[in-house]
Amino acid sequence: MRFSSSYEPGEYESDIYAAWETSGIFNPKMTTLPVDNNDDGIDDREENISDSKTFSIVMPPPNANGNLHIGHGLTIALEDSLTRYYRLKGRSSWYIPGADHAGFETWVVYEKELEKSGHTRFEYSRDELYARVWNFVAEQRGNMELQLRALGASCSWDDLTFTLDENVIDRVYTTFEKMWNDGLIYRGEKLVNFCPKHQTAFADIEVEHEDEKGTLWDIAYKLVEEPKDASLALSREIIVSTTRPETLFGDVAVAVNPNDERYKDLIGKHVELPLTDRTIPIIADEHADPEYGTGAVKITPAHDFDDFEVGERHHLERIQVIAEDGTMINVPEEYNGSTTAECRKKALKNLKEQGLLKGEKKIEHTVAHCYKCGTTIEPMLKEQWFIDVERLAKTAIEHLENNEIKFYPDNKRKILIDYLKNLKDWNISRQIPWGIAIPMFRKIDDRATDEPEWIFDRRTNLKEIEKAGVKYIRDEDTFDTWFSSSHWPIVCTNWTEENYNPYYPLNVMETGADILFAWVARMIMMGIYVTGEVPFREVYLHGLVLDAHGKKMSKSKGNVINPMDLVTRYGSDAFRLGILRGRSAGMNQAFSENSVISGRNLCNKLWNISRLIQSLVDENEQSERENLISEGIRSYDEDERADPVTTGVGDAPRRNNDFSLAYSTLNMGEDWICREINDCLKQVEKDMKAYRFAEAVEILYQTIWDKYADWFLESQKIYKNTELLKITLEMLLIALHPFAPFVTETIWQNLSWTEGFIATAKWPVKLQYDPISAENFENIRIIVSEVRTTLQSLPGTNNSKKYNLLYDNDSLVDDNRLLIQTLSKVPAINPLDGSPRGLRLALVNHELYLDVSEKVVTTYKDTLTEKILSTGRELNALNARMMNPNYIKKAPEHLVKETEDAIREKESLINRLKQQLSLI
RNA sequence: GGGGAUUUAGCUCAGUUGGCUAGAGCGUACGAUUCACAUUCGUAAGGUCACAGGUUCGAGCCCUGUAAUCCCCACCA
Fold first, then answer.
1. Residues A514-556: pLDDT tens digits?
2. Do the interacting molecules here have an ipTM over 0.90?
3. Is the dihedral of CA A546, A549, A552, A556 positive or negative?
4. Which chain B positions have some atom within 7 A of a protein CB?
5. Which of A281, A223, A275, A289 is CA-nearest to residue A252?
6. pTM, two decimal places
7. Angle subtended at Cα A458 by Cα A454 and Cα A464, rounded to the nearest 5 degrees
């Protein structure tokens, strides 16, 4: 016996994965491309591999030195199912794994380590820090990759791309250079989102906005000039409202709305800036909302995004009063060097003393925070590299509106277009050492006046370079990680300008819906900019995996589920099946251990199905050997055979597999299972095309369990067709393989007749069967179910419910007595002798009786009455429909006919039930 | 402020172009027991499809409105 009585995933999974990996079947070039593709191989590729024969997908790179979380588990389950499915479908499938240097994340972790050891980043040069983090990551690396293997990811490990690989940096520099030459890159002093704790700038999308309670203070700014009309002068002062009094030192104007009658003649006048000896002008700008507060607003271009724009419009000075470390600068001595909070306190105190603080009120407003540490983001004036996104966004929108990329869920396409329409220029400078150095150098030789201030150069390993006798110094910033990762489909597939690449664009990009803007949008813009083509044809976005109660998982709530823990306890397949269940594109959905348990149960069921079939095959071979010796003819008893309604499909099935097996269907159950498996395969194909993973798993689950095991295998305990058993088992194993790779491969390796890996088997072609015969089995099923239901509803709670079944003038039953008896577990099935007796089953086309005593029938009276009533209600509804002349006129013909048939059936059923009742 | 989604059985979700007598898994209840599988088998109960209108022969599905929950975007001092 090869199979133990239950499937123990832990015993097989790692060996199975190792066997796959060493055989190289996950590497598409090895399995399907011509061998000589080194020199002239490109041409071969073009000839031999058309787009429809390839399938490519890239892995969103998990943090190289982290552990996989539940979201990764879902990602892998989705991506690997697709990859394995298309591999079985015969495509040259390339699943490209990745590892992320996770610029900011890793830097934060490392900086903490540094702080623990009593050091700070400022003690080291950028190059030193880079080298230190590199070593730190190298030490930690590896776990994640082992976990991907444990999840069964069938990715091509030779092609693993690390986000700091040389070819990645090279490609990023090439793009940057192209953009620089195209004038899409500019250096600008702008307000950027700055985290004072991490001392780096962020892009808009990296900032989290939260509602917070705050205080709005009213501050009086005294007018310098006497107004023309004293009544409009508001007591010779203007009140402005602010949530940030400390920034008043950076004020350069007070703005009022040009249409605001109250202030019309103050425009152009000046006010004294409190706590300073400066005076600032009153300007007119639409930004000031007459409805809000006093309608006058202080303008601080260096520390507020709106004010920055106002300042641009009016060519105002930008006075920076908050330094990068969050302390005050360029302010009166008293405040200099204090933190913003201290400064605010002092300033308010002084304003109050001078009688300039006119009021305060509690308000709720949104405040920007660092997404990592929660520190309030300080808008900071900085020189940074920006990408002028207008052209990129516009082109991307055109391709999107042209429907070149299909989205799952569909509505994300429009959301993305709207986002791109409002996209602002993209700050790509980061002040952290762990990342790709920006390849720009600034002239330090002032005499070389003809030379540009900034030049592009790839030699970022050098702090200083010399070009044409002029010295330049390196910009110390690194790229925003999204800038490099926007190249992901390009770098992973090794796309080049020179050669045709059958794997680009990717067939599908699968990732989290939460990074639609940060990543998907940028990949599209960059893909089009670099290659002229969209980087992928379809996008599948998954939502968040929530806990069992639909709540977000978080460490603080303690409801985090570790995927590896589930894999250890229930097996990789169980986890994959479990996490795919009840999940659809783009939705945040709950996940619980129960679904994993149900996946585990399916694996075990499949294991035992295989165990049974293997034993039947072994038995058959044994008896064939014996028959050979004794010249016997058949392995099963002819007398027990049911009516051979089958036509028996003699043709060998058209399978391309190396292990093609001939089969024929010999009875109804066999035709029936062929039909059901065909339907199932068709449904799975449809579901996979539409990325309906949960539905694909569901139909497989039902087919394997409810149909194959519960009905077909039970029927095969009477009539054994080992060739068909082999074929159908293979088909189901292959069909489930994309979702449950380990158990299907383990079984495949254990079965006596299969060869090679199931992972590279061919997706099955449809079976041939006799449809009439299949439908007959369906009728048998209905009969058996009715017998079971009726038996259950009869009084009595135990084995005493063993009644014979009687039939009258029914060839289907007559021909399948043994089958019905076995399935329904009645002691015997006999033709009715004499007049009907016992309890008649509520079946339309069959006259069947359970041979029970009068007494039992009597106790069944209530059930029978209820049945008559409910059938009557159904009949009434149908009749009402037919009474409606519009229904007959307007509804499709076949529906009307169906209704008519249904009415006839209900009527006859009621009559029979009534007849039955009257006998009692 | 703008936008997107969700609302169907106790729980988690299906329900694709309207044809539904609304399904599944888990859970619950009742029953089975020696063989492939208790990680099992059989049976059942459980729903005003959020609410209110409308379109239609027919609405869980389409339209209008309302409510609740969740998410994203946004510069409101």
1. 999 999 999 999 999 999 999 999 999 999 999 988 889 988 8
2. yes
3. negative
4. 3-6, 11-16, 19, 21, 24-27, 30-33, 36-44, 56-58, 70-77
5. A281
6. 0.91
7. 60
